[in-house]
Amino acid sequence: MSRRQLLLGLGGIGLALGGGIYWWRSQPVDHDYPRLTPAQAFAAAKAKEITLVDIRTPGEWRQTGLPEGAVAIDMRRDDFLQALSEATAGNLAAPVALICARGVRSARMTRALAAAGYRRIIDVPEGMLGSASGPGWIAGNLPVTRWQG
To answer: Taking every annotated instance into account, which residue ranges of this chain make up the domain Rhodanese (predicted)?
Structure first.
């Protein structure tokens, strides 16, 4: 085998692995927590039945705005759990609905919050932009507010 063939072969393996990792990271994890459509989440947040938390990044909030009635807490924050505790007045039994762009991060975060002791976690799997679960918040013509960050 020539050096060129070896390098091309290794490059192909690298691309395949990279593509596989990207695919894996773009798939929501399976969970048994309740799910809401964006319309249901909006109605519940408006009625103060849930705390709706947008876990996306400030760049995403800037692009699309925030779901009306949502609390913006970037899931990458070191103090995410502290910020969520403040949003729920420290009540681990308070219903918390998570929304992200396409339902991948919110699905993953349901497990993390359960491990942190939260007992009523709800996923909004359509997200802001839509997913296999449905068209999403924006396509559903639900209200958004401008992020003031």
So the answer is: 46-146
